[in-house]
């Protein structure tokens, strides 16, 4: 079993839809949780960074962490074609050193 | 803020040659830098962690004599792929972190290496 599981997609939605992206993990030592967006042939761009269980909102993005279920989510409201990218979840233990990534979910938002 | 650059963005070299990739933190001092490798449609795999002025810590299975990492200053780390072979062709991405574990990593734009 992989430490971090993420559905690779692809996920195709119409413009304006609410997108839900999810990751599950098995390592209870993970303390920091991140979502990155990666466009083709580019480096990952940090979208959300959370430490504790609960919700964190930033504009159209909401990150949710449920440590008891070892489950994290990213919601994108009012999705735009420019949101089309691969979304990677990542997490680390208290050292913050080694990020363990999910495989990434490819999202396509249709105009 | 938190901008990380990489140079070159793309490099093509012949088998057997060495290639150096630079990673710079432009607007903050990076006490720790990380080097990742990413294959097409795959996730990022950590290769090594380097702290300024110290030897890099390599992940299991990564040859330290093949992938030389130098972190000589708080804003610059370099990765040298020595005696490159076609199987070293990949997308190499660095990240930088400013201080402690509570700070997240900011990624560079990546370097695509093609070894002929």
Description:
Chain A is mostly beta strands and 111 residues long. Chain A has no helices and eleven strands. In chain A, the strands form two sheets. In chain A, strands 2, 4, 5, 9, 10 and 11 form a six-stranded mixed β-sheet that branches. Helices cover 0% and strands 52% of the residues of chain B. In chain B, a hairpin with a 5-residue loop joins strand 5 and strand 6 (57-58). Chain B starts with a strand and ends with a strand. The model of chain B has no long low-confidence stretch (mean pLDDT 91). Classes of the chains: A mainly beta (111), B mainly beta (116). Chains A and B meet through strand 4 and strand 5 of A and strand 5, strand 9 and strand 10 of B.
Which of globular, elongated, flat, extended, rod-shaped describes the shape of chain A?
globular
Q: What is the number of E strands of chain B?
A: 11
Fraction of residues in β-strands of chain B:
over 45%
Order of SSEs of chain B: EEEEEEEEEEE
First-to-last CA distance of chain B: 37 Å
